[in-house]
Design brief:
The chain is α+β, with helices and mostly antiparallel strands and 297 residues long. The protein has two domains: 94 residues, Heat Shock Protein 90; 190 residues, Phosphatase 2c, domain 1, CATH 3.60.40. 24% of the residues lie in helices and 34% in strands. It is built from six helices and 14 strands. Helix 1 packs antiparallel against helix 3 and helix 4 crosses helix 5. It is globular and about 65 Å long. The two termini are 34 Å apart. The relative contact order is 0.13.
């Protein structure tokens, strides 16, 4: 709530400095899971929105130029429409954490024996008050080099979660090569949204969605950031009932049969079972599990 108060204060101060008049409305969406700030003013407008979002920018002499940059940094989503000499409309949104009646998570991520650094990484990025992007990244090899590769791609995935899944993987590949980093990574990305599961995977990570049976999600052969990168194939699965999703790096053996879901009180127990009964004797191990409950009725 402190972040919301600061953003509201900065937007109001910005409007007072620049606008003739304006209105600010605080609202909620999707049952209170998204906090929304809407500001509409009549004033000079913003001639260069991208420049106005930069830290330190201000058209007022002596101003610290913190307003819009703070909004961009503290809020999860921001849209700005502005017409010079007419005014500006800003809509900023903050996504609240999803509650357990929407999704539950289980996670184990452990470095290979004898290594200080974990060569795996994972991403959990909730958005839009009802959806989540999940990813596991397995850096080539073990140790620090693999850790740097996986962590780099994890940051890119989280920063670009709004882009189409295939485009996220392509960005990871291009920027990894551009940065002249060593190795590469196997990557799985999944989105759980109301009524739909979306998935793409490259390399030797593996993924499953589980209802009354075990359903395998397909990866293509290759590596992100390496010479054998191939265009991703995105799979879309309609969801008509709650579903459990498992994303694993190659430290977990491929599943051949449906886990006994009825024996687990929560999905963290499923993640532990994957580690205890299916992990290999070598390599980093990551099992990321989500039980998602929003589906088409």
């Amino acid at each position: 709530m402190e972040e919301l108060a600061l953003v509201t204060s900065e937007l109001c101060e910005n409007a007072i400095k620049h606008a003739i008049e304006g209105t600010l409305i605080l609202d909620v969406e999707k049952g209170g899971r998204i906090l929304v700030i809407r500001l509409k003013d009549r004033g000079p407008g913003i001639s260069d929105i991208s420049m106005a979002m930069e830290k330190g920018y201000s058209s007022v002499k002596g101003s610290l130029g913190l307003g819009l940059e703070i909004v961009r940094r503290l809020m999860d989503d921001i849209s700005i429409k502005s017409i010079v000499d007419q005014g500006t409309t800003i809509v900023a949104k903050k996504f609240l954490p999803l509650t357990t009646d929407i999704v539950e998570y289980g996670l184990l991520s452990i470095a290979a024996d004898g290594y200080l650094y974990n060569g795996d990484a994972y991403v959990i990025k909730e958005f839009d008050g009802d959806s989540v992007l999940l990813s596991v990244i397995d850096g080539v090899g073990q140790g620090l080099k693999a850790n740097l590769a996986a962590s780099f791609m994890g940051r890119l995935i989280k920063e670009n979660y709004r882009l189409p899944t295939a485009e996220i993987l392509e960005i990871c590949h291009e920027l990894f090569k551009k940065g002249k980093m060593e190795g590469g990574a196997a990557v799985s990305i999944a989105r759980l949204m109301p009524g739909k599961l979306e998935y793409a995977g490259i390399g030797d990570t593996h993924a499953y969605w589980i209802n009354d049976k075990l359903n395998i999600l397909k990866n293509i052969v290759g590596s992100v950031g390496n010479y054998n990168f191939k265009p991703p194939i995105v799979q879309e699965i309609p969801l008509s009932e709650p579903v459990t999703l498992c994303l694993c790096t190659d430290g977990i053996r491929n599943l051949l049969t449906r886990p006994p879901m009825e024996e687990f009180s929560d999905v963290q127990q499923l993640a532990k079972m994957l580690y205890n009964h299916h992990s290999r004797s070598y390599g980093d191990v990551t099992a990321l599990v989500a039980h998602y409950k929003l589906c088409d009725s």
